[in-house]
């Protein structure tokens, strides 16, 4: 897939993470995103919005984690397994990953901002890095 070409993909799985947050999984082959990159997600008839990639495996299963905050994210929340979306990417720069595994790595994030850090944390772990993570959250 060329990064700037929209590819139509079928949703293979949807995870209801918590109230107002879903993870949408779809398959893309031929390119492998890096932690920190994003995609443009197109919902036909609604809009196109940028979304961080929250996971990607060797089989080409990509994930975006979506908080319902507007018209396009609401439309994404209404989609079902086997529905189609348009995907353009991966785009943008990736997170810096130190060349040596003896660096002290500290991940800090909060709320929906943890989604792209999940992808980074999984990559660091499978690559043999050690790291610490701190997560902030809103409480009522």
TrEMBL record:
Record domain FAD-binding FR-type: where: 4-97
GO molecular function: oxidoreductase activity
Record field: transmembrane: none
UniProt organism field: marine sediment metagenome
Protein name, per record: FAD-binding FR-type domain-containing protein
A Pfam family that the UniProt record links to this protein: FAD_binding_6
């Amino acid at each position: 897939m060329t990064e700037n070409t929209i590819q139509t993909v079928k949703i293979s799985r949807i995870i209801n993470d918590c109230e107002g947050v879903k993870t949408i999984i779809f398959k893309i082959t031929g390119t492998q995103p890096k932690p920190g990159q994003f995609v443009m997600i197109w919902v036909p008839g609604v809009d196109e919005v940028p979304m961080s990639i929250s996971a990607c495996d060797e089989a080409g299963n990509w994930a975006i984690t979506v908080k319902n905050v507007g018209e396009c994210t609401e439309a994404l929340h209404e989609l079902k397994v086997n529905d189609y979306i348009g995907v353009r990417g991966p785009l943008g720069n990736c997170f810096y990953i130190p060349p040596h595994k003896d660096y002290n790595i500290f991940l800090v994030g909060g709320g929906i901002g943890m989604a792209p850090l999940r992808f980074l944390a999984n990559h660091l772990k499978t690559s043999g890095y050690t790291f610490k993570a701190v997560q902030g959250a809103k409480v009522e």
